[in-house]
Each structure stands twice: as C-alpha cells, then as structure tokens.
Amino acid sequence: MNDASIEVSGLRKRFGPTQALDGMTFSVAAGTVTGFVGPNGAGKSTTIRVLLGLDYQDEGHALVCGQRYAALKYPLRRVGALVEAAALQPSRTGRNHLLWLARSQRLPTDRVKEVIDLVGLDSAARRRAGGYSLGMRQRLGIAAAMLGDPEVLILDEPFNGMDPEGIIWIRGFLRSLAARGRAVLVSSHLMGELQGIADQVVVVGRGRVLADATVDELVARAGSDRVLLRSPTPSEAAAVLQRAGARATVTDRGTVIVGGITAQRVVEVLSPAGVAFSEVTAQRASLEDVYLQLTGGATQYRAGTQVQP
Amino acid sequence: MRVTSSPARQPANRTRRPAHGAATAALRAEWVKFRTVRGWLIGLVLAGLLCVGFTFVVANGHHQGICTGAGNCTAGHPFVPNGPGGEAVADSYQYYTQPLIGDGTLTARIGSLTGVIYTGPANQAPSTAHTRAGLAGWAKVGILLTPSTRQGSAYAAICATGSHGIQFQHNYTRDQPGRSGTQTSSSPRWLRLTRTAETITGYDSDNGTTWRQIGTTRLAGLPATVDIGLFATSPVTYQDGATGAATQATATFNDLTFTGRTASGWTARSIGMSPRDYYPTLGAGSTHRSGANVTITGSGDIAPAVATLAGGSTASESLLFGIVVALVVVIVIATGFITGEYRRGLIRTTLAATPQRGVVLAAKALVIAAVAFTVGVVATALAIPLGHHALTTNGNYIFPTSTTTQVRVTVGAGLVLALTAVGALALGAILRRAAGAVTAGIIVYVLPNLLGPGVLGPGAPAATWLYRASPAAAFSVFGALPRSALVSYPFTLANGYYPIGSWAGLAVLAAYTAAALALATYLLHRRDA
C-alpha cells in the first residue's frame, strides 16, 4: 500500500471526441510541494476534479489520504482545495462564504476569522465578494482551502490574477505548508511560477504524464544535452558535427545548437576537421526550456500564446 | 526520483459539539448560504407583500349591493342565516305549528305530495305564473320540531321527500334515511316525531299501526316549550340545467294526532320567505285546514347553503391571484438557489464540501421549503383578514368558515409554496440554467392555474381535468365552501367547488415535485459536477 497523500493511477476520461485524460498516473507525498504543469487543455483541472469526486473517470482511480474523496467524512478537514477562485456568489460576503463552508464541516466560527487573518483578507472580508479583484478571490479561495487545516492541499492555478506581492506570498506560504508536513499539489500552466518552490514536478500534456521528476533532474536532463557554438562557417560546422553523430541546427543568428554530445566532444570533432569556432558553451537549460521541450509535442493548441516566456 | 514521503499527518479534531452527521452540517451550511444573499431575502418579503397586496386588490374589487327600483342600490347583501354549527344554511319553509310544553308526540299521514317548477326567464323573480308540474328531489314535507322559528335555529324533522324517500334530518347537515320510494296516494306514509326531554325521535309507517324508528338525536339545551308542527319546503332544482329553477311543493296531511301539553292553538307561518331572505322561493307559502285535512304549500330549503345561491364569496377566493404571483417569485428564488451555483461554478465548492450529492439536494430542498412555507403561512395569515375586511366593507356576503378551514387554508398556502419551491429547485438542478428552469417552473406550476379558469373557462371539462391532475389541483386546499349530499346542486369548478379534495390535491402537487426531485437526484449523481 502506497502511503502517498494523493495517488492518481491510470485515469482515463473522455468528453465526447476529446480524450481529456489518457492514463494519468502520479502521486504526491506528504511534506512536499508538487507542481502540476502543462499547457491549457492538458488535463490538469480534469484530474483535480476527478480527485475531488466532482467528475467521474472512465477508468483508473484517484485517492486522497488513501481513500476515495467521496468516502471522506467532513472532507475539507482532510483535503483543502482551490478549484475555481471566481466561483463565488457575488452578493455574499467573503466572510459568509467561509462561514457556510465552516458550517458544512462542523468547524467552529472562530476558524473563519483565523483563515481570514491567515490570507490577509480582513479588510475585505465583510464586503460583497462580487467586488473582489481576482487576487482577492484567490486569497479567499486559499482561506477556504485552509479552513479545515487539512493535511492535503490541492490548488488549481492559484497564481492566476495575483499581483507580484501575492505571488511571493503564496510561494512562501506553500513552502511553509510543506515544511509542516502537508502534501501540496499546485497546478500551473507556467513552469516558471513553480521554480524555487516545487520539490517535484509532474509535467502533463494531452491527458498523460510527460515527466515526473525533481526540478534538478528535469533541468539536468535537458541542459546536459545542449551546446552553443559560434563559428564563422556555421553550415560547415553543423555538417561536420552531424557526420560525427551529433544533432546540429543552424539558427537565424548564425549560431549552431548542438545536441547529443558534450562541449568537450564538439571541440574534439571540430579541431581536427579544421573548422574555426569562436565559442563553445555548454548550456544549462531553465525549467521553462525543459517545459517547452517536453510539451512542444503535446500542446493541443499551437496558437503560441498559452506558453509565455 | 521521488522525494521520500513522511507519514501522513493526522488531522486535529476540531469538533466542539458531538457530531450529528454530515447531513445536519449540510443543512446548516445551506441555511447560511440562503440567508446571506440579501436579494433572496428581499424577494421572499416581496412575494409575501405581493400576495397580501393582490388579495386586498381582488377583494376590494368585489361589490355586492341590494337594489330597489331603478338603479337605487346600496351596499349590502341578503340575509343568510347561520346554523347551530356556525355554517351558512338555508332555512325557508311553510310551517303549521303549535307550542309543545314538555314531552309529546305529533303523528300525521301524508295523503299527497305534488309540486311545480318555475319555467320562466332566469333573470326574473320566480313567479307561479310560469310553471310546470314537477317535484324537486329534495322537496321535503313532514313534521318539524324547533325551539325557535328564528332562521338558523336547531331542529329535528321527519319528512317525506321528492326522490330521497323518508328522511330523519336535524340541524341542517345531518340525516338518517328511512323507507325509500316516492309518496303516492296509493302508498301513503305515516310520520311521527316524539320529544322525550332533549331527545327527538322520528318514526315512519306504511299503515299507521306498525312503526319503525328512523333516527334519533339529542338537541342539547332544548327549552321546555318548543314549536312542533307540519312543514313543506321545496328547493331550487338543477335537473333542467346549470341555472337552477325555483320550485314549490304542496302536501296534504290527514289524521293529525297530537299528544302532549300545549299553550295555544295552531298557527301558520312562512319562515325565511321574505324579500330580504337570500333563498329563492316560488310563490307565497300557504296553509289550509279543513277538518282533519291540512294542505301546506311551501318553497325554500332547510339545508346547508351553497355558493351561487347565497351570492357570497370567501376571503380565500381573493387570495388565489396573490398566491399565483407569490408562486412566480418563489420559483425564481428557488431555481436561483441552485442555478446560481452552476452559473458561477460554486456547485463544485459545495460538492467538494459535501460529496454526498443527495444530501446536498435534500438540504437545499429543506431550506427552500421552510422559507417558502413560512412566507405562505405569514402572507395568508395577513391576507385573509385584510381580504375579509375589504369584502365586508363593500357589502359582500362572506361564507362563514370554520377555524379548521381557516387553518387548512393558511397551512395549505404554506404547503403549496413549499412544494412548488422544492419542485422549482429540482428543475434548477435538472436544467442548471436559470432561464430554462424558471420557464419550466412557470409552465409546470403556474400555467395550469392561469389556463384553468382564465383561458379554458371554469366550465370547460379541460379546466376540471387540470384541477384534478396538474399541480393546480393543490389549489383545492383554498376551497372554503362546504359541500353537502343533502343539497342537489352542481358542485362544479364553475360554481367555486374544486373537483378534488384538499389533501388529495396537495398530494397531486407533491407527486409532481417528488418526480422532479427524483430526476434531479438521479442526474446530480450521474453527471459530472
């Protein structure tokens, strides 16, 4: 039996002609922040909805705290979730939104005040939620997720609409939760948001996991592969390297991106062939580069706007 | 590749009260949700105010007047007596009576019973100038004992009828049937009425020697001296159509035998046949005595009053439009209670908090039912006295209604609103969109009420069908007019009588709501949130 806080295994779900989930499998351990990234439409939100018992999967299973979510009594005391920050009745105040959630879990009314203070919403708590900015809604959603002081937190796109100060606050907050033994699953379509806070990253595309690794592993995997070469004769250099078994591409700016061999080996191949070069650099890829590399083939909508630098 | 996982942390137990289960928690959550949306609270108050306001407007539009001569009318209504039980009654008959002191008996043989039916225009006062021979089914002739000839007094009577055989009747609403068959000269009937203290007993005989007890009753508080005598009366008949025609009955009695003490001799009296009395009568009553034979001609009825003849209404009739308006507002609020959550995605937060979807729907249904019930009861409790006041001020006769009926109408209003609200909520859960759900709610729960009497016409068979089988059947709970088997009268929708019983009508509405709720529960479980 796996002791993971979240365990997703072989989830499949089809919406009409669209295969939304196609064998989604991963798990999240207590005391870690796990990033859940992928382009829009990759199946992140569907996976989270299945985890919370909101959507039904066609195949596979999704467990939280070792159980089906629907089997949990007072589930918000075990699992806190931020699913849609904008999902608020506009004429209800933030405080009253938290109050009904507290009632549904038999949590004391004091707890409402505590989570309002926790997310720094006390000035707005008695105002109608319809007037909240997206950032305030995100804070209210996080307050709702924290209401039951849960051991597992599932946050879907918590950075959306947050101001820089808010993003910094969330990042610190998520780290502190993990430090106190909570399991945190945080989804984002921007890899950069997770750099520095996620212990583990699950990259998804087209309903399945493309990579499930630590941040260091991911970066190392992609970065060890690339060498930047500057040469007065880029085409000739590329041809020589390709004959030696490397991947080499000439860019618009006249540089050559070399893959499959190390920088050391590039020098060893080019020097005897008499090809001149001015620079050979082993490149360390950013998490963003890794992400683009991984999801490039998995992006469903190639408009280009969904993956921002 | 994986980070080593640490043991899952056990959650702190935050329960301060003993756990009563997730269901009550969900119920409390839904109540907080409802009461924290000001628009819904305002809407509910508005529904109540509209109900009260429209009741007043409708009631205030009713005027009743008594006209003498050319257009000289004053607000007011004819006299309608109330029986000992407080119910509206007819009490019009020809009476040939003498006082009886203490116990005694009156026996008489009925020699003949004949009658005439008015055949003239319905819009004229009935007169004996236009009649045909015919006997109304509930024409009654016989022996009647009463402490007072004031209309609406207690009484007991043994009588022969037009087509209901011999009847022992008392206090307008009660009867015990005796020998059946029609009175003819070849098969005469003997009748006997006996007083023993407060107990009155009726007998009949077909030979004047062997007697059979038909019925007995105790008239509590009967004074020592009462009136006992022969009577004849004949009610409006509907055997020729919906309009009704006044009738007159004539009976010849022979062999009058009186035992007991009396203070003075026989006198003939016409009870309740003056112009101020509401019950339509044909001709003047008359009594002729020659030797042992007494011939009495009378018109009227001694029975419970019926709506069109009394020309009256009830405040609960004025309530109906206000209830329909309140239904519309309640449907909008009840559907919004769930479609609002679908529109904004809040339903996912709700179902994440309470994964038992049936429990969520039940909690919402209970909350919306409770608030709609409260609005219905409070609005009706305010609207009825207000409507009553407006009707009275405008000179209208108001059918007396028992406390039981008033409570039934008030609680019924609450139940109609509550059942409709739950049905609308279920439609909201099925359709998920406010516009569709409100439209469906109005079509199912409001339209039959408007279509019934308004479009199809109250006399149409389809309207009667609607009030039996559609949610409009529940409006029978507002029916405050009593029916009686002792009156031959078309108790139809057109005359203000619903074609289904109050609780059966509510059960029809409840069935629609239960069906909607069952489908909503099924779909809520089956579909993704």
UniProtKB/TrEMBL annotation, chain A:
One of its GO terms (molecular function) is ATP hydrolysis activity. It comes from Leekyejoonella antrihumi. Keywords: ATP-binding, Nucleotide-binding, Transport. InterPro entries: AAA+_ATPase, ABC_transporter-like_ATP-bd, ABC_transporter-like_CS, P-loop_NTPase. Belongs to the ABC transporter superfamily. It comes from the Bacteria. The keyword ATP-binding applies. The keyword Transport applies. Pfam families: ABC_tran. Gene3D superfamilies: P-loop containing nucleotide triphosphate hydrolases. Residues 6-231 form the ABC transporter domain. The lineage of its organism: Bacteria, Bacillati, Actinomycetota, Actinomycetes, Micrococcales. This is ATP-binding cassette domain-containing protein. SMART domains: AAA.
Automatic annotation (TrEMBL), chain B:
It holds the Pfam family ABC2_membrane_2. Keywords: Membrane, Transmembrane, Transmembrane helix. One of its GO terms (cellular component) is plasma membrane. The chain crosses the membrane at residues 40-59, 319-338, 359-387, 407-427, 434-451, 500-524. GO terms for molecular function: ABC-type transporter activity. The keyword Transmembrane applies. Residues 1-21 are annotated as: Disordered. The keyword Transmembrane applies. This is DUF1349 domain-containing protein. It comes from Leekyejoonella antrihumi. The lineage of its organism: Bacteria, Bacillati, Actinomycetota, Actinomycetes, Micrococcales.
